[in-house]
Amino acid sequence: YLLARLAGKLAGGLAGSQLFMARARISPLIGAGMLFQGGMTLAMAVSFQRTHLAALDHQVTTAIVVGVIVFELIGAPVAGRVLSRGRRP
Prior knowledge:
mainly alpha
C-alpha cells in the first residue's frame, strides 16, 4: 500500500506537470509535495466501514492508518524541499 501510494502520487504529479506545462509552470515534483494529504484516505475508510455496517478487514485498516501516519511524518519535510526547489512563474 505504501509503495503504491507513493508511486501513484509521484506518477500523477509528473503526468499532471507534463500535461499542463504549456499553460502553467508546474514542477514535476508536485506529487512529492502532496504525499502528506491523507485525510481523505481516512475519511473514505471510515465512511466505508459505517456505510456497509461491517468492519473493514483489520489488516486493511491498519495499512491505511500506518500509511497515513508515515506520509504525515515524512510529508512536511518533503513538501518543504519541493516548494524550495519549485519553479517560479
